[in-house]
Structure formats: C-alpha cells, structure tokens
Amino acid sequence: MNTATFQDGILQSLPENYIEHFLNYLRAAGYAERTLRKKRSVTTALARWMKRKQIPADDLDEGHIDAFVARSPGRRKEHVKRERAVIRLLLRYLRSTTCLQGPPIQKNASPGDGLLRLYGDYLRKDRGLAENSVRVYVPFIRALLASPSTPMGCASGEAFNTLTIQAFILSQGRNRSAAYIRLLATALRSFFRFLFVAGQIAHDLSPSVPRVCKYRQSVPPAFLSPDEVERVLAATDRSTPSGRRDHAILLLLARLGLRAGEIASLELDNIRWRAGEIIVSGKGGMVDRLPLLSDIGEALAAYLREDRGVSASRRVFLRTWAPHIGLTGPAAVGHIVRQALARAEVRRSGRGAAHLFRHGLATKMIRQGASMPEISEVLRHRSQTTTAVYAQVSFEALRGVALPWPAIGGAQ
After folding, report:
1. Mind listing the pLDDT tens digit for each residue in 250-259?
2. Which residue is catalytic, options 259, 308, 319, 324?
3. Which of its termini does the chain have fewer beta carbons within 10 Å around, N or C?
4. Is 125 a catalytic residue?
C-alpha cells in the first residue's frame, strides 16, 4: 500500500491493517516486540470502537480518547493510563503522517496570543534564551494581558503605566516568595523592552517596573566533596549500556562543570575528536570550547561505540528505552544524577542535583588556590558576581590560620 492510498484509507475510517503501519513506525523507533503486542491490542480495540461509533479517523481528538478509555468503568487506573498513552502516541503519528489537523484553534483565543508568540520569538532569537526560560517568562505576560487592569490583548501606551504595572505586581505577589516576585519583575521588564523595541509603545516602560531587593546569599551552595565525587563515579555500573552512558554524563558534570541542559543538548558534531575539544552551547546563546579530557573522551567513545546505536537523533545521549531519542532535557540529567547519588549513598537535600558537581568543582578549585577570575572562566559565568558566592567557602580555611583571641591579662 503506497502512502497516498494509506492516507486516504485512514481519513475515511480506521482500518485494522493500518495498525501494521503504526507498529512498523514504533518498531523502527526501537520498541520491543513484547511492547508492540500490547500496543497492537489497544489500537485494535480502538479501531473496532471507532467503527462501531462511526467515528472517522480525521475526527479523532482528545475527547474521543477520553470516551474510549472510559468505555468500561471500574477498570484499574494503570490500565486506563496505559491505554491513554498508546492512543495519544497514535494520534501524534496520524497527524505527522497524514493530513489530519492538529487541535483546533480556540475561537475564544485572546487577541494577545499573537503578541505572546512575537514575544516568545523575541526571547528565543533576539535575546538567546533557552526554551525552558521562555516557558517561565511567557505565563507571567499572559497573566498581565489577562488582568482586569489591561484591555484584552491591548499593547498600547495607554494600556500600561506605572500605577497599573505596580498594581499588577502587588496583586500577583500576595503570599508569594521574594524569588517569585523577582522573576515576575524580570519578565515584565523584558516584555516592556520588547514592546518598545518592536514599536508597540512609544516609551520604554521597563524602568517603571520596581526593583526587588535581593540579599546576598549567606550560606555557600551545597556541593560534593572530591571524595564524594569519586564515590559516585565508582558506584556507577559500567558493565551495562545505561551505566556507561551515565558514567560519561557524570564525568562531564564532575570534570568540566557542565550544566544539565548543556549535557542534554550536546550533539555528535559538538565533539571534535581530532582537536580534542567539546563545543558547548551555554546560557544566553554563548558557545564555548572546552578540553576533551582523556577520561571523558574514553567514556564517550565507549558509549558511542558500544551502546548508543543508530538513531535519527543527533544528540549524544539517548534514552535507553524506546523511542531512542535524545534526553528530554535537564530534568532527565537530574534524574540520572539522583540515582547515582543514591547508589553511592551520598545524601544531599534541595533542588539541582546536577549542580552539586558544578559547585563541587568550584569549591575544589578555590581550596587549591584558584582565583575568582579563574573559577569564573572555568564555569563560564558572564559576571564574576555569580562566582563570588564561592568565596564564602574559603571562610572554612581561615579557621586553620586565624590567631587565637587574647584573653584578659594576656592569656590566650
């Protein structure tokens, strides 16, 4: 069956022989035959249900998925969840291989949605923000455009002024942490600069956003000691494919201080074997060249040669389970790190597990006598103010050289 015939058949109905095309797609993505048999059972049941309900494939949407998984009440939640996941995967496949439409555009969409898209493009292309940062900023602006003090989607100079901006911050900041309000203010300043640069308003209103006081951190960041780093590396089982992948990731964190997002986005072309360097795309669109240390090179070579396998993805590190695509993002790297810490019985509280290695590298350098500019260069900080937090670590070293305080009468 050629592609055109296949697509025509899909749009008219959901024939059972279509299931083979879907399963072949999953098989090429690396799914095991046992998993494919389970997915065949679900998709076959869906095809028969749609035929009975006379639902054409081009009408399949989330509402039909809800109706299908709820057809037999009283089933276990795990079974319903698995069915829903299979059908959503099927729906994405249909939309990518046929002329099925995506989710319909909401008729009641806000006029500000177009402005939000332009603002998102501005953050990505002009400001060089990572996708995670864009997803943090945009909801703040959506809330601003939807606030009672702002005409829906309006971006004229009359819509915003100092009083309305401050009133919005106060309304959003109730019972919120100082960190949340600082982030809100940063997003608002960014948005008003965008409006001014794009010619949407005549005057730059970003100075109207008040500054939120930020106190200097009084406690050094959590970090891993050199002994703990080696324990974590040693506890990784390098006899398995996932262990060799995780070992390479942990070495990049420990030896070069990479961020979790930088590891997740690392691509095959970023490794320059002959030049002995790694090209890293950092925060703000910065591109840096880092040395390909011998132990990192050996770990990467072992993983790429023995375990990575063939994939359409250009990412260095892939999922061990199908589909064999790149890691989903920084959270996936953080999950790998937390598992490694648990294996080594290293307990650290708080968020940012991957950053423990980065902080540990900086702490090790400062205790070995490295200067702040040197640490800033290794960690690729834009400002040495960011690096200054590690200066507090050296207070511990002062205990060994501080003179005892003299007591009354000259006694010490």
Report:
1. 999 999 999 9
2. 259
3. C
4. no
